[in-house]
Amino acid sequence: MFWCYGTSKRWISCAKAFTASRLLGSSASRFAGVWALPQGGCTAFGQVEILLIIHTIMNYTVIENVLTMQELDAINRVVLGYDFPWFYHPSDTHDSQGLPFMCHTLVHRDESYTPVEGTVNSQSYEFFKTIFDRICPDRTVLRASLNLTFHNPAEHGSIHVDHEFEHNNLIIYLSHTSAGTILYDQNHKQIDCTPSEYNTAVQFAGLPHAQQLCAPGETRLVVVFTYI
Questions:
Q1: CB 60, CB 202: distance < 8 Å
Q2: Residue 219: beta bridge partners?
Q3: Which residue from 120, 119, 112, 228 is spatially nearest to 169, judged by alpha carbons?
C-alpha cells in the first residue's frame, strides 16, 4: 500500500500495487522477466509515500510528483520501448486540418458524443487509470490516450476542445520537453500557457487549448484524460 498527500491536508489511500508488466496487459506475460519492477517501493513488498504538490493558478492547476520512480521507469522501458504499439494520426483534430502525431488510445470516447464513460481500448489502461484515480478519485473518464509528438516548425498545434459539453482535462507530462499547453478563451484568444515539467500534471476545465511544439531533438510524451 502507498499513500498520496495533497495540499488539502488529506491522506488518500491508494491500495493497488503496480508492475511494469501491467502496461502491456496479461498477454504480455512473456515480458515479465524484463519489465518487472524491483521489490519494495510501491509493490506488495514495501511502502512508499507520494507527496502531491498542488498549485492552483487562475486558469489551471498544477500537480507535481504525480508518478513514483517505479512507474516512471516502467514508462521509459515499456511505453518508450521497442514493443509498445503506436499508431499514426494524420491530424490532431477531427477536421483533418491539424498536425500529425503518434497515439495510443487508452479509452475511446462514447460514440453518442454524450458525457458517458468511454470504452476501454488498451490493456495498458489499468496502469494509467490507477495514476488518474490518485489525482482525480471518483471521476468518470470520457476518453484517454497517450500522445507522442516531435519537433514541428509550426507555432503550435490545432486549437480545439475535446468535447462539446462541460468536462475537465488532465494532462500528465511523461518526457522532458519545453512544450506545454496553451489555453484560450472561447474566442481563441490566448489566456495562459501551462508548464511542461516532467512528472507533472495539469488540470483545467475544458477550455480551448493547443499543444506547444517540441524544440529540435525533443519528444513530447503525455497521457491525456478527459473526465467529469
A1: yes
A2: 150
A3: 228
Is-contact 152 213, C-beta < 8 A? yes
- Is 21:29 a contact under the CB 8 Å cutoff? yes
DSSP state of 216: T
pLDDT tens-place string over residues 29-87: 222 222 222 322 333 324 456 788 898 988 999 999 999 999 999 999 999 999 999 99
DSSP class of 180: -
DSSP-based three-state secondary structure for 87: strand
| pTM for the whole structure | 0.77
User: Could you say which DSSP state residue 112 is in?
Assistant: T
- To which H or E segment does residue 141 belong? strand 141-150
Question: How many CB atoms are closer than 10 A to CB 102?
Answer: 15
Angle value at C-alpha 81, between 66 and 147, nearest 5 degrees: 55
Could you give all domains of the chain from N- to C-terminal order, each with its CATH number?
A: 52-227 (2.60.120.620)
Distance CA 223, CA 75 (A): 11
3-state secondary structure of 194: coil
Residue 71 CA: distances (Å) to CA of 38, 111, 130, 153, 164: 11, 32, 11, 32, 33
